[in-house]
Structure formats: structure tokens, C-alpha cells
Design goal:
Chain lengths: 230, 111
């Protein structure tokens, strides 16, 4: 009976495997201790009572789902700041490399380069401001016991901020890719080209990481909402 | 009403018990409340996790005598401070309600 209950709670928390594992171990310890402390000698009856006293697995899982969602949101906030910092470092490293190797955009493409550079700067600035604002916003919110409407609104605001930061970063990275292509145009692939290519790979990976975190929020929000419905 | 004070109750039970696992926290709450707070036992665990995430508790895993893995919670300094603040607020609230229901004037707040 206890195993069935544990399987049930693990199933409900399947969207967050590490939390499910941790909760399962904690609940298992609790239930067997309750069985051991039960005054009635009947093991099956003691198990039934322990499970009944513990409460509905779905209700408990719903409370954990809110925690999981809050944790994922905070992680995404931190990720947004780290991603902005990572891309900034990659950009600066690439620009320093261009200066060291004296690579420059050819004269006929300088106007295009200037325009793309401006888009890049403003998109990155927007991403940095919005990402930082999102992180400060979500870390200052208290985690409630349930997914009540006020907290839903807070999470929605944070989600919008994260999506805006990710979109702005994507524009910035695409602009960087265009600038890198313009810089590398006409040069032969050599060991010197490795630095711009690696820095671009880092930037793309950073944006991918942020998108992955945002997807995690959406996934957990859906799971928490589904658990709350019942 | 109990739901709104669950965090304070858990913090107070842990403060009294020292380090404790979930089952011991529930037993402590039941014992200290004279059985008045007989809440669904499972609701304690999300509260413990939430308080840990807020930095009010810390936890570590150990192996119990039974051989099972056990998570033991301890109040942090921040948790002790938060509990002290909640005690003051609760005392003021309790005095005010006592004054209202009993007809006695609550003591003036020195602040």
C-alpha cells in the first residue's frame, strides 16, 4: 500500500525528477515511521492509516509543484543574468581578437556593418536591462504555499520579461553572427578564425540555455496548473 | 486559519526540537499543541521545502537506524530571527484580540 502511494506521488511529480526522487525518499521514511509507531499490531491497517493521515497525493504534489515552479523561475532569473554576462564576455573577446589580428570589415560593407552593429548594441542593452530587472523581480517575490492568482500574475510578468530578454539576446546574437561573417569574409579559414567561431558558438549556446530555462518554466507552470485543477 | 500560520508553527517546532526530520516535526507540533493542531501530515513537507528555499531552514541527509535515508532540518540564523519577529507580531495580535474578546485594554505598544 505504501509503495502504491509512493509510486503515485512520484508519478504526479514526474515533471521534476530530482524533486520527485527526494520527496519519495522523505515520504517513505515518514510513512514507515508512522507504521512503526502505530499502536495497532495489524501491518496492513497501520499502512492504511499512515497513508490516510498523510493526505491526498495529488494535493501534496500540487504544493510541491508550486515550489518546483518557483525554483525554476529563480534559476531562469539567474540564468538570464549569467547568459547576458557570458555573451558580453564573448563579444568583448572577439572584438579584442579583431583588434589584435587587425581584422576589419571591408570598406564596401562598412555601412552595413555600422547598421548591424547599432542593432546589436541596442538589442544587447535591452536584453541586459530586462534580464537584470527580471532577476531582481523574481528573487524579491515570496514563494507562496499555493499557486494563487497574485503569484500567477507575478510569474506571468517574470515570464514576459524572460521572453523579452531572450528575444533581444537572439537579435543581438544574430547581429553578431552577421558582423562575424562580414569580418571573416574574404579571409581564408585558419587557426586565427577559431576565436571568432568559438565565441559565436558560446553566444548561441548561451541563448539556447536561456530558452531551455524558459521552456522549463512553461512546462512546470502547466504541470502545477493541472495539479491545481483537481 | 492554521494554514496562514503553518510556517510559524513549523519554525517554532523546529526551534524547540533542534534538528528534526519531518515526522519528528509533526510529533513536536502535536505534542506542544496538545493535539489541537492535527493537520494532514503531508502538508508539512512542502512547508519545510519552502522554508528551506527561503533560507530559514537548512537540511542534510543521513541514514536512520532503520537503514532508510532521512532528511533532517535545522533552523538557520535567519530562521531564528524570522521566528523571533513572528513571535513579537503574534504577541501583539494575541494581546489585541484578547483585549477585544475579554474586554481588557491591550497594553500600549511602547513603540
Amino acid at each position: 500500500m505504501i509503495q502504491d502511494y509512493l509510486d503515485g506521488i512520484s508519478r504526479e511529480l514526474d515533471f521534476d525528477r530530482s524533486l520527485a526522487r527526494c520527496v519519495r525518499q522523505e515520504v517513505e521514511d515518514h510513512l514507515w515511521e508512522a507504521v512503526a509507531a502505530d499502536p495497532a499490531g495489524n501491518l496492513l491497517e497501520a499502512q492504511r492509516r499512515a497513508v490516510a493521515n498523510f493526505g491526498d497525493a495529488r494535493v501534496i504534489a500540487a504544493q510541491f509543484a508550486v515550489l518546483s515552479l518557483a525554483r525554476q523561475s529563480r534559476r531562469a532569473g539567474v540564468a538570464a543574468v549569467l547568459v547576458v554576462a557570458g555573451i558580453f564576455i564573448a563579444m568583448k573577446a572577439r572584438v579584442a581578437w579583431y583588434a589584435a589580428t587587425q581584422w576589419a570589415i571591408s570598406d564596401d560593407l562598412r555601412a552595413v556593418g555600422g547598421l548591424v552593429g547599432m542593432v546589436d548594441r541596442y538589442a544587447f542593452l535591452l536584453a541586459a536591462i530586462v534580464g537584470l530587472a527580471g532577476w531582481l523581480y523574481i528573487r524579491s517575490r515570496e514563494i507562496p504555499a499555493a499557486l494563487h492568482p497574485a503569484y500567477r500574475r507575478q510569474l506571468h510578468r517574470f515570464f514576459v520579461l524572460c521572453c523579452t530578454a531572450a528575444a533581444a539576446l537572439a537579435v543581438s546574437v544574430v547581429s553578431d553572427a552577421v558582423l562575424t561573417a562580414l569580418n571573416l569574409r574574404g579571409t581564408e579559414l585558419s587557426a586565427a578564425s577559431v576565436v571568432p567561431i568559438i565565441s559565436m558558438t558560446i553566444e548561441i549556446a548561451c541563448v539556447g540555455m536561456l530558452v531551455f530555462h524558459i521552456y522549463g518554466i512553461a512546462q512546470r507552470a502547466a504541470s502545477a496548473a493541472a495539479l491545481m485543477k483537481t | 486559519m492554521l494554514k496562514g500560520h503553518l510556517d510559524m508553527i513549523v519554525l517554532a517546532a523546529l526551534s524547540a526540537a533542534g534538528s528534526a526530520h519531518g515526522y519528528a516535526v509533526i510529533e513536536e507540533i502535536r505534542r506542544r499543541s496538545g493535539g489541537a493542531f492535527d493537520l494532514p501530515e503531508g502538508t508539512i513537507y512542502p512547508a519545510l521545502h519552502r522554508l528551506e528555499q527561503a533560507g530559514l531552514l537548512k537540511s542534510n541527509w543521513m541514514t536512520a537506524d532503520s537503514g532508510r535515508r532521512r532528511r533532517v532540518y535545522t533552523l538557520t540564523k535567519t530562521g531564528s530571527r524570522a521566528l523571533a519577529e513572528r513571535r513579537v507580531v503574534w504577541k501583539q495580535f494575541s494581546d489585541a484580540i484578547g483585549g477585544l474578546l475579554g474586554g481588557n485594554r491591550p497594553r500600549e505598544n511602547p513603540a
